Amino acid sequence: MSSTEPFRRGKPLPKPETRLVEDGGERIVKRATVRRQFCGTGPFDRHWLNLDCCGLFCALCTYALHAYGVYAVCWILLPPWMGVTGEDGIRHMSLLGRFHEVVFCAIALFAVISHFMAMTTDPGAVPPDAKPLPEEQPSQQEEAIGLLAVPVPPTKKLCRRCRSFKPQRAHHCSVCRRCIIKMDHHCPWVNNCVGIGNHKYFLLFVFYTMLSCIYSLALLISRFATCHAVRGTGKAIRHYSCLDHPTQLVNILGLLIEAVLFGMFTSCMIFDQWDVIFSKLTHIDRIKGQTVSGALAGVAEVFGVGTHGDGTRCRMDWLSPFAKACFPAHVRDEVLGFCRPVSQRTPPSTEMTPVVAEQII
Q1: Rounded CA gap, 182 and 294, in Å?
Q2: Which residue ranges run through the membrane (predicted)?
């Protein structure tokens, strides 16, 4: 079986034949080919996207829940509270109401963008041309005394499921069907694995979702704590309705349930991921009893290293879903746990080797 057999999609293509002329005559060498889909989780697919039906449904539900939160806050909760009716009888939103609308929509938008990035970003799948890290070179003193006279080649551990090279910090995902570097878990809500490639986007999605739940819950409490009874100029107390129509109470109850339920869930996720970041141990690592050591701190492995080379100092791009976590060239291979032939080029490139690239259709 060819090494590229586990990554094929659909029916295998007929293997092309390459004729090589040698001294003893002509020899036929068969090469394996693979299909390259537009979206998928294969090593040669153009765009990363898990096509699992359950994951896609959960992702659509996530977008629908955020859209409902924006609708309930900006069209149901705020207008009767912070709207001002003019002489023409048309209600206009006050400046404070516009401020709350902009802030809440911005938080929800950042949560959706972070979710999309976490779903469509390669979580750290091991490429087919990955190789074990080379062993450390012996020092001159060790060479002189002959301690390392016979060099020991690096061992190459293969995954028993996908039959590809499996680095030390990689774990196989049965849904993505790939080995993922620093895999924490497969999250159905983001329809992807959470690994070293998209851990930052996952954290931002959880953080902005928690922030939107807290924000909407604070608006709900403030609104209904003040709308029923407002003291006038004297001692009289005037009462007015909190909503324009009684039927809107269903929308408010839905917003309350959504804010409480997902606010508690995302808060627990934030505290759980806090320990994962600073200990550098994922949930799978803890189950298997593995220990991790490396050149970078846990925060730097998740959010990358800044332009000044300091990964532990707080930066503004930590909160941006548009900034990708990057690692310096001298520690990239150590963080990933493997090296690629193209990584030895100058400048570093992310393209595939010609041997692998020529097998793609």
Answers
A1: 13
A2: 56-78, 98-118, 201-221, 249-271
- Tokens 């859209």 sit on residue: 67
| Cα 206 to Cα 268: distance, rounded to the nearest angstrom | 10
Q: In the structure encoding, which two tokens stand for residue 43, read together?
A: 């090593």
DSSP 93: E
Provide the residue type at 212 as one letter: S
CA 54 to chain centre: 18
Residues in the chain: 361
DSSP per-residue string spanning 18-68: EEEEETTEEEEEE---B---SEESSTT-SEE----HHHHHHHHHHHHHHHH
Q: How far apart are CA 166 and CA 240, in angstroms?
A: 66
The kind and range of the H/E element at 115 are helix 95-120
By the 8 A CB rule, do 183 and 173 touch?
yes
Residues of the chain with pLDDT below 70 are 1-32, 135-155, 228-241, 292-297, 306-312, 342-361
Active-site residue identified among 74, 176, 187, 213: 187
Q: Distance between CA 69 and CA 215 in Å, rounded?
A: 11
Model confidence, pTM = 0.80
Determine whether 187 is an active site residue: yes
Exposed e or buried b per residue across 61-71, where buried means at least 16 C-beta atoms within 10 angstroms of its C-beta = ebeebbeebbe
Distance of CA 168 to the CA centre of its chain: 21
Q: How many CA atoms lie within 13 A of 351 on its CB side?
A: 10
Residue 91, helix vs strand vs coil:
strand
Instruction: For residue 163, give Cα distances in angstroms to 172, 253, 337.
Output: 10, 51, 17
- Cα separation, 230 vs 344, in Å, equals 71
